[in-house]
Design brief:
mainly beta, Alpha-Beta Plaits, 4-stranded antiparallel beta sheet, 4-stranded mixed beta sheet, 2 helices, about 10% helix, globular
Amino acid sequence: MEKILTFELICPFWTSFRNPSTVNVHVTYPFPPPTTLYGMLNAARGMQSDWHEDREAWQFTLVVESQGTLVETFSKIMQTPHSSRKGDSLYDTNRKIVIRQKLVGASYLVYIKSSEILLEEAKSALMNPYWSLYLGESDDLVDVVSPEIVEVDKVSVERIHSIIPRFAEGCRLVKVPYRFNKQGSSWHVEQQLYSIPPKDKGIKLSEPKLAYSIEGRNILFNGNSW
């Protein structure tokens, strides 16, 4: 039997998972990428925002329980000030309009694999987080509901409900940040293609595959064979 930490994430107001390659239109991913989930977990454990030393010890997957409603907001932000004349101490205050996509009413079932010691640490931290937890931007508060460690083995299934870390027919495709790698003083993002099955019913497979079945939902992690 293997142990998996599972819990629900409910966004009571709005949330946004910004695609870092966008500029004036901040497009959101449809679910929190593994990098976002790892960051939230580290906040619960009291780690600094750029701490990543045990990233390889964790695997994440999720089921989109509610994709929420996509809305767009308009924000007027100030660009980096610059001197209007060489040597002048006065600054121009240029502003630009930014469109931000947000998800209202989104919720997710999250599943985490790791060692038993780390799963117990994560469960305790999520129940009593060191820092206030948010999902996405710094004002996107999130509720963590019923963290629980379950014991489960892989079984043969004909339907998958979680995001799938590869192409799957009949699903919505999205490429999201999977991990950040530090090279010298710079950070580089590694991306992963995921397939998002239809809500509730999941995606029927062409042939049975091994997956974890937890409370009626069949899930895959990145390490699962396909």
